[in-house]
């Protein structure tokens, strides 16, 4: 029953459009270079990571509209090598250049700066066995939380519906602690939910 529901949901996935199309052949060649030339699992992970980056880039471009075209082009060119675009890094560039914190703190937003600052303070000063975090400042952490908040909202807008809304609610509950919601992890979880539905579509 669940498989049938997900298959029907997959049939209704929105088409992700961007001014620059996602070229699977080019990305596949890009992912097969270097140490991963013979590692098929690593190549698949790379492909999925690039698609995730492309999807978020495209949703953000749709959200910001034509006024962001120069910003988009700048990030694409910055992370283009020959014919290949690193969509993961282009996404990071586009997110950081598009003032996510200012957008997150507009009136009516459910992004709580004080809560996120408290969460960032805990994250920066707490070590977790087996997890190595990159050095970060409180402001960088806060910006990352704002980016996660916006990305989660864009996923909900693009993919919202009875089944995925419930899955998104699971992400929100799972990653909301006493210090407030961890928007980076909520967004990551939501990406996984959408990717699960995309994978189901491959079995139709």
Summarize the main sheet: 2 strands, antiparallel
Query: What order do the SSEs take from the amino end to the carboxyl end, as H and E?
Result: HHHHEEHHHHHEEH
Report the mean per-residue pLDDT as an integer: 85
Oligomer: single chain
Coarse shape: globular
Q: Overview of this structure, please?
A:
With 204 residues, this protein is mainly α. The protein is built from 10 helices and 4 strands. The protein has 2 domains: 1-98, no CATH class; 100-204, no CATH class. The protein has helices at 2-11, 24-31, 40-64, 69-78, 87-97, 100-104, 113-125, 138-159, 162-174, 183-201, and strands at 80-81, 84-85, 176-177, 180-181. A hairpin with a 2-residue loop joins β1 (80-81) and β2 (84-85). α2 crosses α3, α7 packs across α8 (138-159) and α8 (138-159) packs parallel to α10 (183-201). The relative contact order is 0.13.
Secondary structure layout:
Blueprint: H1 2-11, H2 24-31, H3 40-64, H4 69-78, E1 80-81, E2 84-85, H5 87-97, H6 100-104, H7 113-125, H8 138-159, H9 162-174, E3 176-177, E4 180-181, H10 183-201
Antiparallel strand pairs: 1-2, 3-4
List keywords for this structure.
about 200 residues, mainly alpha, two-stranded antiparallel sheet, two-stranded antiparallel ribbon, globular, disordered N terminus
Short overview:
The protein is mainly alpha-helical and 204 residues long. The chain has helices spanning 2-11, 24-31, 40-64, 69-78, 87-97, 100-104, 113-125, 138-159, 162-174, 183-201, and strands at residues 80-81, 84-85, 176-177, 180-181. Helix 3 packs parallel to helix 5 and helix 8 (138-159) packs parallel to helix 10.
């Amino acid at each position: 029953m669940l498989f049938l529901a997900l298959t029907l949901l997959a049939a209704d996935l929105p088409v992700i459009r961007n001014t620059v199309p996602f070229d699977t052949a080019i990305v596949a060649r890009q992912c097969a270079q270097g140490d991963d030339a013979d590692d098929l699992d690593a190549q698949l992970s790379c492909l999925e990571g690039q698609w995730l980056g492309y999807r978020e880039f495209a949703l953000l471009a749709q959200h910001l509209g034509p006024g962001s075209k120069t910003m988009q082009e700048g990030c694409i060119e910055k992370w283009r090598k020959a014919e290949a675009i690193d969509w993961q890094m282009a996404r990071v560039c586009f997110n950081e250049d598009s003032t996510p914190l200012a957008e997150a703190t507009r009136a009516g937003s459910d992004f709580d700066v004080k809560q996120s600052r408290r969460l960032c303070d805990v994250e920066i000063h707490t070590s977790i066995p087996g997890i190595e975090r990159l050095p970060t400042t409180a402001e960088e952490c806060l910006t990352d939380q704002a980016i996660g908040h916006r990305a989660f909202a864009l996923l909900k807008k693009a993919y919202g519906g009875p089944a995925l809304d419930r899955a998104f609610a699971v992400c929100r509950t799972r990653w909301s602690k006493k210090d407030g919601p961890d928007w980076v992890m909520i967004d990551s979880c939501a990406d996984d939910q959408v990717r699960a539905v995309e994978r189901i579509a491959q079995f139709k």
